[in-house]
Design a protein that fits this description.
By secondary structure, this protein is α+β, with helices and mostly antiparallel strands. It has 4 domains: 3-80, Barwin-like endoglucanases; 83-191, Rossmann fold (3-Layer(aba) Sandwich); 196-216 and 299-413, D-amino Acid Aminotransferase, Chain A, domain 1 (2-Layer Sandwich), CATH 3.30.470.20; 217-298, Dna Ligase, domain 1, CATH 3.30.1490. Helix content is 28%, strand content 33%. It contains 11 helices and 25 strands. The protein has helices spanning 11-17, 52-57, 101-113, 167-170, 173-183, 198-205, 223-232, 277-288, 351-359, 362-387, 425-442, and strands at residues 3-10, 24-29, 32-41, 48-50, 67-71, 76-80, 82-86, 118-122, 127-128, 133-141, 147-155, 159-162, 189-191, 218-220, 235-240, 250-254, 260-265, 269-274, 293-297, 303-304, 307-317, 323-332, 347-350, 393-400, 406-412. Strands 4-1-3-2-6-5 form a 6-stranded mixed sheet.
Length: 445
Amino acid sequence: MNVSGSIYISKTLATRIGLQDQDEIRVRVGGRITRSKLVIQNLKGRSYMLSPGLAHELLVKKHRRLKLRYDQQTNMIHLGPTIGVLSSSLPNREGFDPTSVQAELIYLSNIGKKLPGQVYIFTPSSINWSNNTVRGYVYRQLSIERGMWVSQIYPLPDVVYDRIPSRSSEAQTNIRNTKQRLCKMPYLKYFNPSFLNKWKVYQLLITDSRLYPYIPETQHLTEVSLEAMLKKHDTLYLKPADGSLGKGIIKVRRDEKGILHLVAHRKGRHRSQAQNASDLWKKTKVFRGDRSYIVQQGIKLATFHGSPFDIRIIFQKNSKGEWQVGKKFVRVAAKGSSVANLSSGGRVETTKRVFRILYKNPATIEEKNTHIKELCKNIANTLEHSSQSNYGELGIDIGMDQNGFPWLIEVNSKPRKTTESEHSQVIARNTLKRPLEYAAYLAGF
């Protein structure tokens, strides 16, 4: 390995990190490593400096101040963090939708400029595998209404924050291959690696005895399992195992006469009836197609102004790697609907307002909130441990039944987040900022 330039480190910093005086040392930025001359001396007002040659070799950008850490075991200096946000594309459409992928990527880029280290957006086609570099993009605002993506060459990142926006994108061969190669790179950490399958999540979570009471009975949907579940429960939900946004959900309710009433959510609500499990299996085929489904016990959810609701929690790891509630709000189903997803017509209410009306007593409300937080922590920890994957954030949907008991409705590894909020812009901003802070923690900073 050739020697490239020099790194100058103050005596104070060298003493603090336990760095011994030596002629040369390896220096790393992201996936790029080079040997450098080491000079320990008095530096006025600075803890370290890079010579132009070393900065050029490590692709360190001007005006970006990187933190420094020293690994005594490998005798290597690490400058960073370098964080890459992986997306399938870089949308740059006119008009601005605060709930869009474009808005989130722009917001992440702008937040990244204000954090120590360097943050860029990249796509699978951006990577140059031959020299461990990537064409990364940051957003430059040209006016109040216009901006553009500007690219530079960066090292492969210390940490990848996966924001592939859809299951169809994730299924593409080039994206699957890119993920696999990135996860095998030395020094690189990767979190939120894929969308979740509802059946696999159920199988992972049900192994934890603490969670068993909170999870509705669930089975992989077959004609046999459908008949068995109908014998046990008056209400069932049939859900696509790989679905999201409430699409494709079929609610089944048995009335006093044994007639099965079904409501399918696909481009609106479609109602029908069935006489038995076999009839129901046939009539739902048109909605299910060839997709894998689960059948889940229906919970009699509490209502708010006559409509059922659930609680969406954006559960995130912070700059210390600890789980916390990033955002929590109530999703109230549209009139006549049992699906609370916002994309299906649901509306947002604050948890504080709904709980105050339903439970009234402040001590009871505090107890409910504590119970929900502990449940989310157990869900997140069990999911990580059982799947052996790393998650920095999860969207967890909790339903409160008519007795005020919480049930896990769904877990989402790619929660959609809005850059604007009618309730708290600070919460909206922190929800987007926190995964970048967690990424810095994963990188060792």
